[in-house]
Amino acid sequence: MLEDLFSGAWQSVVFGIVGVGLMAAGFGLVDLLTPGKLRELIWVQRNANAGLLLAANQLGIAGIVFTAIITSYDDFGKGLASTIIFGLIGLLIMALAFFVLDLLTPGKLGEVICSDQPHPAARVSAATHFGAALIVCACIA
Question: What is the value of pTM for the model shown?
Answer without folding.
Answer: 0.91
